Amino acid sequence: MAHQVTLNHVYYTYGLQTPVAHEALHDVSFNVDQGDFVTIIGTTGSGKSTLIKLLNGLQLAQAGTVNVLGVELQAKTTAKALKQLRSQVGMVFQSPEQQLFADTVLQDVQFGPQNFGVSPKQAAIQAKQSLQQVGIAPELLERSPFELSGGQKRRVAIAGVLASQPRILVLDEPTVGLDGRGRRSILELLRKLNQEQQVTIIMITHEMDIVARYARRVVVMHHGQITQDTTPREFFQTTQNQFVLPGAVRVGRALQANGITLEQLPLTRQELVKTVLERLQKEDRA
User: Fold this and answer.
1) What is the DSSP string of the chain?
2) Distance CA 67, CA 54 (A)
3) Of 18, 25, 37, 250, which has the most beta carbons under 10 Å away?
4) pLDDT at 241
5) pLDDT score recorded for residue 48
């Protein structure tokens, strides 16, 4: 089966051939399959945002190849092919609520699918479905999006991307600025889309709890290169002090450091409790 996303030996430099040239991506290669849930992590300036902008042609690789859903993204890619691809690759950037513009919530959310050729009637249906998915009450649909709370604006903005029913969802720090309830709501929606509809998720995040709880893969970037592409459990087992580890991981590693053998490193509190109880039960039987 072909990969949904394939990057081969990709390079990208800002200010190319100028005195202020800065290489953002250096020889980056990786693949993403349908239904994957990939988190991309790394310090500021590591190339994360540049990487995701390549995935729907917002930027084009200066060397190497980028292929997404069978479309090779290059300077000669037609506008028609690019528009079709962007209907299938939904992009959610930091503070997406700043992109709201319409008179009502419903008009704002149905703009995306209409722009990609869906009839106004069908676009309204898809918009209402996506608004329901993100937890926006029906009575808010005719309200101005600018009258909503910050968390509601974020959910409306994400609904605007979901309304086009993308096969791949690319997100840059989607939970920044949300309270605990809003954060959990968005993350559980992404998990549901991923598990029930096989929507591929590619997410930049600095929150290690998200990596531990939701991701299947974690890609680590450093100075424009991918330095790790592994499972969250393997990553947390081996990573040093560059990242703030989730509490359950810290406790699990502390137990291991004190000579206590664990079948696997716990990533969440639930896993930690289960692991400790199983260990105690084994000792009781012994």
Assistant:
1) ---SEEEEEEEEEETTTSTT-EEEEEEEEEEE-TT-EEEEE--TTSSHHHHHHGGGTSS--SEEEEEETTEE-STT--HHHHHHHHHHEEEE-SSGGGG--SSSHHHHHHHHHHHTT--HHHHHHHHHHHHHHTT--GGGTTS-GGGS-HHHHHHHHHHHHHTT--SEEEEESTTTT--HHHHHHHHHHHHHHHHHH--EEEEE---HHHHHHH-SEEEEEETTEEEEEE-HHHHHHH--TTS---HHHHHHHHHHHTT---SS---SHHHHHHHHHHHHHHHHH-
2) 9
3) 25
4) 66
5) 96
